[in-house]
Amino acid sequence: MIVKRLKINSFRGIGNLTLEFNQKEPTILVGLNGAGKSSILDCLAVLLSHFVAEIHDPAGTGRFINEQDVTAEQKVARRFFRPEDINNGAEKTQNEIAIVIEEREINWFIALSKLKERPRGGNVRELEGICLRIKNQLRNNPVVNLPLTVYYHVNREFCDDIPQHTSQQYWSKQLEVYERALTGARISFNSFFEWFKELEDVENEFRLDDPDYRNPQLEAVRQAISSLLPGFSNLRVRRTPLRMTVKKHDKELIIDQLSEGEKGLLAMAGDLARRLAIANPGLAAPLQGCGIILIDEIELHLHPAWQREIIPALTRTFPNCQFIVTTHSPQVISQVQPESIYLLEPTVNGIIARHPEPYRNEDNAFFVEELLGISAHPQDVFVS
């Protein structure tokens, strides 16, 4: 499953904007603060939440509800645009997404008017049909693979203490891969820890009879972390006291001893690998699963050397996922082709999106001046 197209109309600071997404390469959104980068990801997350909720809804009603009706306890729910999302001077916002799934293109839109209390959805029949087919496949085939979609918001920092007592059968249901996937909530390391510990307990039980046995879902997580964090290996749970550790260049460290950048990347890699592993029980290599992954400020807390490698590492580790990310980092931009970049620019006619001209990857001045919109040379702005 991939996003093919997004049409935005009067959403926040964006008037009319159509984005065609590269179906084989990541898409990088670049622009000044306020240019609409995060708004585009938020818009995608709202629209994709209707796909997720339609699959997750056991009744399959496809009912559109007010966001106010969504309770705090609901972990998977349709999200809607809010009155404050409507562009100043406009009467309504209407935003449409086109995705390709099972070799078919389907699209739907969500609209909200200042004159009406309830949001309105359109073209939902095809969406309901494809989701009903997926649910029927789930009922008839216990190893069917699910398409994934996740939004890693800028507030995605590592959070939660390691629990001292874990619940049983944590995240045992396949559909729960969609829990909190598009809310932009912080990554819950508590959730990851409980899931990992439960499967590791089972793995250790099997290894009493077969020392070479490895749980394929845990192996997917281990491979993802080793791929995204070079020098890291042997993620495991220690029982007394209860804690998660990882080897960094052969030195065992407790997760809390890592830097913020290391913890954030480990948490995101672990969360994404876990979701892919649960979503794809029929794959021998779960990291080959497909998905739409939204990441705001992908360079967050990362050293410049890691910023340079993060896009190649993600596409290498998760080759069938479509990444749509925002960045302010020249290092991130330097590793992608111009056709994968959208420059968002405010104009008198509103925000526009364009691809940059071809450039040399080593031309840092070009990245800073042309793509990020700032002078490559410091100016004496504080000198009177």
Report on the architecture of this protein.
α1 packs across α2 (124-140), α4 (216-228) runs antiparallel to α5 (260-279) and α4 (216-228) runs antiparallel to α6. The chain starts with a strand and ends in a 13-residue tail after the last helix. Mean pLDDT is 86; it is low at 60-73. The protein contains eight helices and 14 strands. It has helices at 37-56, 124-140, 189-207, 216-228, 260-279, 304-317, 330-333, 364-371; strands at 2-11, 14-20, 27-31, 92-101, 104-113, 120-122, 148-152, 232-238, 243-248, 251-254, 291-295, 321-327, 341-347, 350-354. It is of the alpha/beta class. The strands form three sheets. It has a six-stranded mixed sheet, sandwiched between helices. Strands 2-1-4-5-6 form a five-stranded antiparallel sheet. It has a domain at 2-147 and 290-371: 3-Layer(aba) Sandwich (Rossmann fold), CATH 3.40.50.300.
